[in-house]
Amino acid sequence: MKDIEGIEKAIAALQPHWQEIEADFNRHNELFLKLLTVDHEPIGRILRAHLVIENFLDTFLTNFYEIEDFDDLRLTFAQKAKLLPLRCSSAAFVRPGIIQLNAVRNKFGHEIDHSVENLNLSAVYDVLRHARPNVRFASHIEAIEGFAAVACASLSIP
What's the pLDDT score for residue 1? Predict the structure, then answer.
């Protein structure tokens, strides 16, 4: 195997800093290992609910605004949610919860070790109180999934 030219010189220059380099590597490696051990099931369940709602949201907006080539607009989920009617529509009923769910999904997108239990889901629970008054959800994740069903049903109504 060929020696890398100048490697001895580079090692000699780094030698006085080697302890600091190893400590920095170990800090980053510990964080990496910690993030790998985060339970990803909640993230997956939230993402799935978000994606399913987005599918119904796309269909609703395409039909509601009679937009051809809707996908060509390349709107973000937040932009799509903001396009939902504010009143006189079943979509208006779930709009605040959809916007809130997007905020939850975004939290997980930027903080992988974030806990859904610490989030404000008041708009999601407001919808569920009216749409499913006799159902009690054991966790926020289950409430989000229950909300997703209500949101998709509401977005299916022309």
Answer: 46
Could you tell me the pTM of the whole model?
A: 0.79
Tokens read off for 112: 């992988």
Question: Which of 117-121's residues contact partners 24+ apart within 8 Å by CB, and which partners?
Answer: none
Give 98-111 pLDDT, tens digit per residue: 999 999 998 876 77
In terms of phi and psi (left: phi > 0; alpha: psi -120 to 50; beta: otherwise), the region of 142 is alpha
pLDDT-based confidence at residue 65 (cuts at 50, 70, 90): very high
Element (H, E) at 52: helix 41-65
d(CA 62, CA 155): 11
Query: What is the gyration radius of the CA atoms in the chain, in angstroms?
Result: 24
Q: How far is CA 24 from CA 14, 20, 76, 86, 95, in A?
A: 14, 6, 37, 51, 46
User: Distance between CA 17 and CA 32 in Å, rounded?
Assistant: 23
DSSP codes of every residue in 100-157: HHHHHHHHHHH-TT--GGGS--HHHHHHHHHHSTT---SSHHHHHHHHHHHHHHHHT-
The per-residue pLDDT for range 22-33, each reduced to its tens digit, is 998 889 988 888
Q: Report which of residues 31 and 128 the model is more confident about.
A: 128
